[in-house]
Automatic annotation (TrEMBL):
One of its GO terms (cellular component) is apical plasma membrane. The chain crosses the membrane at residues 12-27, 57-78, 90-112, 124-145, 166-186, 206-229, 285-303, 337-355, 367-388, 619-639, 651-672. Electrogenic proton-coupled amino-acid transporter that transports oligopeptides of 2 to 4 amino acids with a preference for dipeptides. Transports neutral and monovalently charged peptides with a proton to peptide stoichiometry of 1:1 or 2:1. Primarily responsible for the absorption of dietary di- and tripeptides from the small intestinal lumen. Mediates transepithelial transport of muramyl and N-formylated bacterial dipeptides contributing to recognition of pathogenic bacteria by the mucosal immune system. InterPro entries: POT_fam, PTR2_symporter_CS. It catalyses: a dipeptide(out) + H(+)(out) = a dipeptide(in) + H(+)(in); L-alanyl-L-prolylglycine(out) + H(+)(out) = L-alanyl-L-prolylglycine(in) + H(+)(in); L-aspartyl-glycine(out) + 2 H(+)(out) = L-aspartyl-glycine(in) + 2 H(+)(in); L-alanyl-L-valine(out) + H(+)(out) = L-alanyl-L-valine(in) + H(+)(in). It is found in: Apical cell membrane; Cell membrane; Membrane. PANTHER family: OLIGOPEPTIDE TRANSPORTER-RELATED. Keywords: Cell membrane, Glycoprotein, Membrane, Peptide transport, Protein transport, Transmembrane, Transmembrane helix, Transport. One of its GO terms (molecular function) is transmembrane transporter activity. This is Solute carrier family 15 member 1.
Length: 719
């Protein structure tokens, strides 16, 4: 390893041939991945439901954050290799990382500033600013340590421990998936809890606080193992050297672009005046692969929407799996579960079967197939969205209003509302909302009432008996689905006296006769409402089984008796039907996307490793991570630039773009020639085993190149 030979390297304690130090590294990675994926699992819902951002803006900020997480590894690699070394880089950036997670947890405490009656913080600017600072620090921390931890783990092994090193990387990868899987199960459960001092709201502070605690644990565990680590000193960054070589070739080619200079076989050959041919050959190999990377960001543009668009899609679906209730952000666990299942199946069964059929399934062909599977996943998501859209209520547009009528009289009632004619039984409502373009007259036979509705609203018109003639009461209804799969419940009191209604520790409020309570959000499952007389001389419990995303008006009739039989009297009026498309319908799109990931991502890493020079594999790794960052940038550009009214159309747009990119990539792959970097490096090593004359002093070269008018004359002066 760099900085040590076999005799110089310190001997660390071992168990079964493995350094004890790797235990601290594996535990550190598990905690760090739990912290990152746990926070990320609930992030887009935090944006939408806590910060009150719309879907597009929440998606944009989410993907901006993910893009930053995949841009900062380049910075981390340069700092570690050129300045601090891997150990100090991990320590310092982990402190930054933990600070960011703690700040995120603090930003999600809704009681930290004054809140309005709905529990929404009044000083939202404070929460937004704190969140952005936290996310910036997290992006710097998680991205900065990403290229260091695995390599630092590899540094713990002696040169003769190749087998143990390979096993370590398998365990390391397992710890990543274990942390990801557990966190995406646990943090949505924490988010769904209710917490707060003054108001009870979804507990995003706890959902961010636990990952913050795990990141602090990760840092402490890593520091505890400090005395056992093999720490290599920074030896200079090959990435910087690579960039300087490329930059110099471009600069030199531009400087000598006049026609009387002889042409060179490759534009990188213009770096020969300063760099040896072996390095230039290595750079050429890397550039050849990086050129193939150009279309790849489109795959990641689709892949990373599992945490944004697909999670938002799940909020409009039914998560009842019988014994289990799945939260929308928990559906992301399908991906790591399928990865653990599919990777061994693909490697041990699918690829060997393809080989037996004597099909030349090259790495680039595999990657093309992986991209097609990702496109199919978004087609599947679009089909699911079409089914969801068909079940959603038709909410009023800006110029139309809607109304429903409830008859609280003790007799049947025939009425005319504008052009509609209805007959309502006692204590009943009409089946669906009626649409009105303007104000209308409600004709109740013996009396007429002019009704004025605000454009774009849903309303309930309650008909009551006040004196000799019927009167009307008007209430505003929800004009969108309840958020996060919750159920919105309110009570209409026809009992004749004031009532107090509670559910658990939630107070639905007091409601006088012929009035309604405010909507209260209730989670899926069986809800138990306690109804008390304001005088305290009677109470009863009403239970209702609720699904996801419904809204009900519960009518308390005049005949209610405050005893154990009261539940039979209460009448349910469904304002918004519960979500009927099951979350299980998302499994096919996750399955297709995961197959695409296994075939594309794993193969891409293998291909990059096989085609990279021995000393530039980190450069290609940085390039690979950069494609992930660019993919997320593509998402935020499309989310802001393309305004499609239908979500299914956006899914099909992304699928179509990936198919087009896939065709371009397949053409590029067709003309790609596979190489053996070891053989090429050996050829140049034989030709120039000790050629150090090319490593010239920058200032001397610049001086002579500027004063020379002919390339051959310049070469002679340097010799």
């Amino acid at each position: 390893m760099a900085g040590y030979n076999e005799k110089q390297r310190p001997k660390s304690a071992t168990v079964c041939g493995y350094p004890i130090s790797i235990f601290f590294i594996v535990v550190n990675e598990f905690c760090e991945r739990f912290s990152y994926y746990g926070m990320r699992a609930v992030l887009v819902l935090y944006f939408k439901y806590f910060l009150n951002w719309d879907d597009d803006f929440a998606t944009t900020i989410y993907h901006t954050f993910v893009a930053l997480c995949y841009l900062t590894p380049i910075l981390g690699a340069i700092v570690a290799d050129s300045w601090l070394g891997k150990f100090k880089t991990i320590i310092y950036l982990s402190i930054v990382y933990a600070a960011g997670q703690v700040i995120m947890a603090i930003s999600a405490i809704h009681d930290i500033t004054d809140a309005n009656k709905d529990g929404v913080p009044d000083n939202m600017t404070f929460h937004v600013a704190l969140s952005m600072v936290g996310l910036l620090l997290i992006a710097l921390g998680t991205g900065g340590i990403k290229p260091c931890v695995a390599a630092f783990g590899g540094d713990q092994f002696q040169d003769h421990q190749e087998k143990q090193r390979g096993t370590f990387f398998s365990i390391f990868y397992l710890s990543i998936n274990a942390g990801s899987l557990l966190s995406t199960v646990i943090t949505p459960i924490l988010r769904a809890q209710e917490c707060g001092i003054h108001t009870k709201q979804k507990c995003y502070s706890l959902a961010f606080g636990v990952p913050a605690a795990l990141m602090v644990v990760a840092l402490i565990v890593f520091i505890i193992g400090s005395g056992m680590y093999n720490k290599t000193a920074p030896q200079g960054n090959i990435m910087v050297k690579f960039c300087r070589c490329v930059g110099y070739a471009i600069k030199n080619r531009f400087k000598h672009r006049s026609s009387h200079f002889p042409k060179r076989a490759h534009w990188m050959d213009w770096a020969e005046e300063k760099y040896d041919k072996l390095l230039i050959a290595q750079v050429k190999m890397v550039l050849k692969v990086l050129f193939l990377y150009i279309p790849l960001p489109m795959f990641w543009a689709l892949f990373d929407q599992q945490g944004s668009r697909w999670t938002l899609q799940a909020t409009t679906m039914n998560g009842d799996f019988g014994a289990l209730t799945i939260y929308p952000d928990q559906m992301q666990t399908v991906n790591p579960i399928l990865i653990l299942i599919l990777v061994p199946i693909v490697d041990s069964v699918i690829y060997p079967l393809i080989a037996k059929c004597k099909l030349n399934f090259t790495p680039l062909k595999r990657m093309t197939v992986g991209m097609l599977f990702a496109a199919l996943a978004f087609v599947a998501a679009g089909l699911v969205q079409l089914q969801i859209d068909q079940t959603l209520p038709k909410f009023p547009s800006g110029s139309v209003s809607q109304a429903k009528f409830i008859n609280m009289l003790n007799r049947s009632l025939s009425l005319r509302a504008g052009t509609y004619e209805l007959t309502l039984d006692p204590l009943k409502a009409n089946d669906k909302y009626l649409s009105f373009d303007d104000s209308f007259v409600l004709d109740l036979g013996m009396v007429q009432h002019p009704i004025s509705l605000q454009d774009g609203t849903r309303n309930t018109i309650v008909i009551i008996q006040e004196g000799p003639l019927p009167e009307t009461l008007q209430f505003k209804d929800l004009k969108s689905k309840p958020e996060q799969g919750a159920n919105s419940i309110r009570f209409l009191n026809g009992f004749g006296s004031e009532l107090n209604i509670t559910i658990g520790n939630k107070d639905c409020g007091s409601v006088v006769s012929n009035n309604m309570t405010e909507y209260v959000d209730v989670s899926q499952g069986t809800a138990h409402f306690l109804i008390k007389n304001a005088t305290g001389d009677g109470e009863c419990t009403y239970s209702q089984t609720l699904g996801f995303g419904s809204s009900y008006t519960l009518i308390i009739p005049p005949t209610l008796t405050l005893d154990e039989n009261c539940a039979k009297s209460i009448i349910e009026v469904m304002d918004i039907a519960p979500n009927s498309v099951h979350m299980a319908w998302q499994i096919p799109q996750y399955f297709l996307m995961t197959i695409g990931e296994v075939v594309f991502s794993v193969t891409g890493l293998e291909f990059s490793y096989s085609q990279a020079p021995s000393n530039m594999k980190a450069v290609l790794q940085a390039g690979w991570l950069l494609t992930v960052a660019v993919g997320n940038i593509i998402v935020l550009i499309i989310a802001e630039a393309v305004t499609l009214d239908e979500q299914w159309a956006e899914y099909i747009l992304f699928a179509s773009l990936l198919v087009v990119v896939c065709i371009v990539f397949s053409i590029m792959a067709y003309f790609y020639t596979y190489i053996d970097p070891v053989k090429i490096e050996a050829q140049f090593a034989e030709k120039e085993p000790t050629d150090k004359k090319k490593m010239r002093d920058d200032d001397y070269y610049e001086h002579n190149s500027d004063s020379s008018s002919d390339e051959d004359e310049f070469k002679q002066s340097k010799l």
